[in-house]
Amino acid sequence: MSDGLFDQFKHWYEKRHEYAREWKLRTGGQVVATMCTYTPEELLIAAGMLPVRVLGAHEPQNVTEPHIFGMFCPFCRDSLAQGLLGRFDYADGVTLTQSCIQYRQAFNSWRMHVPTVQWDYYLPMPNEVQSSHARAAHYAEVQSFRSFLETLTGNKLSDEKLHEAIAVVDENRRLLRELFEYRKETDPKVTGVEALYASLTAQFVDKREHNEALKKVLAALPKRKLNRPEGIRFMTIGSENDDVAFMSMVESVGSTIVIDDQCSGTRYFWNESKKDADPIKAIADRYCDRPACPTKDYPSHTRFDHVLGLAKEFNARAAIFLQQKFCDPHEGDYPDLKRHLEENGIPTLFLEFDITNPIGPFRIRVEAFLETLTEDELF
Amino acid sequence: MNAEVKAAVAPEKKEFWRWQENTWFDESRNWRDGSIVTCGIDVGSVSSQAVLVVDGELYGYNSMRTGNNSPDSAKNALQGIMDKIGMKLEDIDYVVGTGYGRVNVPFAHKAITEIACHARGANYMGGNQVRTILDMGGQDCKAIHCDDKGKVTNFLMNDKCAAGTGRGMEVISDLMQIPIAELGPRSFEVDEEPEAVSSVCVVFAKSEALALLKAGYTKNKVIAAYCQAMAERVVSLLERIGVEEGFFITGGIAKNPGVVRRIEKLLGIKALDTKIDSQIAGALGAALFGHTLMQKQGAKKAA
Questions:
Q1: Is the dihedral of CA B55, B58, B62, B65 positive or negative?
Q2: End-to-end CA distance of chain A
């Protein structure tokens, strides 16, 4: 039986559009639809805005075909659909920081065809963050974004305001990591679904409010006891994932999801910014340093050891790849990453995700995978 | 004048797709002499099987079409064999459910996925040299690797589509108006082996088959083209996981030599033979698991 500890996050997740509308009424601030977690939210927050990450709705839709191809990943199509269907009609602006080319085209369609959006900004972050020129280039881009926001609002984005925003966002990252620490324990005090609610809502709720909610949860956690069997400890790997129905199913058949490498989870918040007197440098470097998305992970593949490290640190017994169909960057990494994990004792299961997903057939695969890991009493 | 208007009578529609439901039991033994009786019930999307295992050996089974709900299909499948041998539910020590409806088998002690059960069943049917299993079911198809005990080591399933599955073959059977059991043999009665139809999609294959007939293909040649397409589709699934020696096919399509021979040709490997009905592999595996569990932990009588 749930003790309701994560109900606030669940409520925010389910009512995210209502939350943003209410926030706008309450504060009079601008809401900005952000695409991709490389968006330097610190600048938007310093400008008094609410960054709201665009997520899909996992519903069948028929509005994106005139704009982007059907073989763009489901997250691209679902994100664009939300804009075209007017679900983000409260958003004043939309911004994308470069990651993959398909999502950029989804963003371009957004800015051309979502009439309620008043302004848009494309931040061309270097994909080769390992290049010796990347930091200087990204510094300049973040600085340009700052100028853009200053012109847009007519207000100066002072270093002081930026430092304040960095402190708020870093606190959020720190609290989320504290929360995730509890998942290392045997019989974790936080389930994968709960952790997902917490990390996802951080991406569209006012960080100050989110921080307060996290503190409440963290204060209650030491005494929390979840009366559920731990089962097999899983890691999830992939791009964006907010499929709560899938996560719940996995955790209902004899497992606990203890860690992830996804941009809806750890990749979003894992590292804080390093102290620097120049806030733009602190921000720009932080995004170059974060756990890489496959689009920003070359020539050397830093992800592979990072993912394996997480699996070991959180004592994951096995991993599930949540592969968004047609997501080329992740599909490109998959064969080598799978081999890397399996050679190091982490068996893997590959599942291909679409806008809507067949929970029944997925359940068979997950249960069969669990049986390969557990059912020795059958032989 | 009394004009008698006769009600129009629809011509009886033949159901060519209808495969043989069947029941079998080992007449050389009496289940009452055994000490552990276990049952596996596989409620699949198209067919349901109940298999009885007595002291770890196959004793009897019943295979029939799945009805419109899983609990009834499970009950009917089991009742069919129990009636033949005078067994009651309380005579069974352990019941394992498997297949799509595995969690809806009302009297099951445990549910195990059909992937694990097919591997275990294939291990019994084909012997412990079985390493690669192709399960061609009613609406999906699976490639499974297992070890010498029949424990799954890796598997793959087709996605979201019934192409290359039993249901597809049923549709072709109806379309060609040829009983399903004859499709395989007739697919070899062709002057030359045709190209595979380009689509194995159950819906599109139908229109493609009609187009081929129009273009002058004989029925046999159309069937051959469809069998070839189905073989190519499942071989691509198998190749993703890799094929090891000790290849075994389970599920209804294993009875169709038109597909099996073509798979073997594409792979360059012969499938292992068995005398046991390939459709019961899942339920047989479930019953064998039941036997092991019964030996290890015991169970209450099914009730």
A1: positive
A2: 34
Going by C-alpha positions, the residue among B142, B145, B141 that lies closest to residue B166 is B141
What is the spatial distance between Cα B132 and Cα B154, in angstroms, rounded to a whole number? 10
Q: State residue B8 phi and psi, 5-degree precision.
A: -65, 130
Please tell me the distance in Å from A282's CA to the nearest CA on chain B: 45
Instruction: pLDDT tens for chain A, 379 residues: list them.
Output: 579 999 999 999 999 999 999 999 999 999 999 999 999 999 999 999 999 999 999 999 999 999 999 999 999 999 999 999 999 999 999 999 999 999 999 999 999 999 999 999 999 999 999 999 999 999 999 999 999 999 999 999 999 999 999 999 999 999 999 999 999 999 999 999 999 999 999 999 999 999 999 999 999 999 999 999 999 999 999 999 999 999 999 999 999 999 999 999 999 999 999 999 999 999 999 999 999 999 999 999 999 999 999 999 999 999 999 999 999 999 999 999 999 999 999 999 999 999 999 898 899 999 999 999 986 788 8
Per the CB < 8 Å rule, is A361 touching B160? yes
Q: Are residues A240 and A278 in the same domain?
A: yes
The answer, for A60 touching chain B at a CB cutoff of 8 Å, is no
Rounded to two decimals, what is the model's pTM? 0.89
Tokens 């699934």: give the residue: B237
Residue B1 falls within a domain, yes or no?
Answer: no
Please tell me which of the candidates A358, A361, A368 has its beta carbon nearest to residue B116: A368
Task: Enumerate residues 6+ apart whose C-beta is below 8 A from A115.
Answer: none
Residues B61 and B166 in one domain: no
Please give the Cα distance from A44 to A280 (Å, whole number): 13
B146 in contact with A, Cβ within 8 Å: no
Q: Which ipTM value was assigned to this complex?
A: 0.82
For residue B143, the enclosing domain spans 130-271
Please give the Cα distance from A92 to B110 (Å, whole number): 55
DSSP letter string, A226-283: --S---EEEEEEES----HHHHHHHHHSSEEEEEEESTTTHHHHS-PPPP-SSHHHHH
**Is the residue at A2 inside a domain?**
no
